[in-house]
Design brief:
It is a single chain. The protein is an all-alpha fold. The protein has one domain. About 80% of the residues lie in helices and about 0% in strands. The protein is built from 3 helices and no strands. α2 runs antiparallel to α3. It is rod-shaped.
């Protein structure tokens, strides 16, 4: 394979000077040398573009995979958190409901005890019902 190497003096640091030097070098080539040079440049450009394309595609694929993994992880964490919150709320509500039921049972037991004592004291069933709401 034929390869043309352009040797630029190290002092050529500015882009314009580099372009001028390259133009001079290209202008001094024979037609055959120029065709080989252009073919080499096209191959290098093709390789460069292919690498760029592969890199961009890999990046896109990585982003899609990362997004899918992130969504899955987020969904799992959200479900776990929701379940924990739901269980905690259910426990809280259950305790509150249990306290209410316990108090109602205590109140009912007290009312029955009071009604029994009032009955023993000779109060009428009708008056006991009015006072306590409990039949004896």
């Amino acid at each position: 394979m034929f390869c043309v190497v352009l040797l630029m003096p190290g002092s050529f640091t500015e882009d314009l000077l580099r372009l001028l030097y390259r133009a001079t070098e290209l202008g001094s080539m024979t037609i055959e040398q120029r065709e080989r040079y252009e073919a080499t440049m096209r191959n290098e450009l093709d390789i460069s573009l292919e690498k760029r394309y592969v890199k961009e595609e890999a990046f896109k694929e990585g982003c899609e995979e990362g997004l899918a993994e992130g969504e899955a992880r987020g969904r799992e964490e959200g479900l776990a958190e929701g379940k924990a919150r739901g269980e905690a709320k259910g426990c809280e509500e259950g305790r509150a409901e249990g306290r209410i039921e316990g108090r109602a049972e205590e109140d009912n037991a007290r009312s029955k005890e009071i009604a029994r004592k009032l009955r023993e004291m000779g109060m009428s069933t009708e008056d006991i019902l009015k006072a306590t709401g409990v039949e004896v």
